[in-house]
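AraC-like ligand binding domain, Anaerobiospirillum thomasii. Tokens?
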Amino acid sequence: MLSKMHLNENRVHGSAQFPFTYFMVDKDHDMYVMPAHWHSEAEIIKVNSGLLELTADNKTIILKAGEYAFINLGVIHSAIPQNNCEYECMVFDLSLFLHERSAANCFLHSLISLNRTIKLDLQSKSATINRAIKTTLSKTFYTLSHPVRGFERRTIGLIYLFLSLIEEVDLFDDDGLSHSFSQNKIKQFKVVISYIQKKYMYQITLNDLSSILELAPSSEIKFLRK
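Tokens:
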């Protein structure tokens, strides 16, 4: 598990109140060629021009202009731009959307604990849903790149809409649910380590760690021992 810990990006994305980071990436950007890394936040990528060869969780796809990809938290990913590619990225903490007595919590916990993984290419069998996803994400990227008063609330609302579209058509990766035991545990281990790195200044209990993985405290002890 520890062999891939050095690939942890380990940086703060946004603020505690609005944990979003937005990037516009062109050939002059320091990280134009995206090195292999992972983080405990989710990421959405939009290609504006050219081609982007994106590898995530040992899967490689080619994104064209106007196409999007979703990177699940804890997944190692990298990208190689081609044909003068320009692309945008948003990195955000899914736990922002958890609220007491929220109907969305069960769904969000399944994403945070990696019991469900959203499809990398965001392509469903429904052309209507595909258009709705693209429209929603296009508005989200525009909102982040052109911040005005209230843009944080608008961004959060758009991500809620995006996630509801994902859930509506069950746009999850079957391979993600059938990962080998070791692969899934490595991903969960990354989530735990990243959580500890962010909260090390506070008292962290076993209940805190078990809650982010939806495990009983006794199961959490067994997991950490492994």
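The two ends are 10 Å apart (CA to CA).
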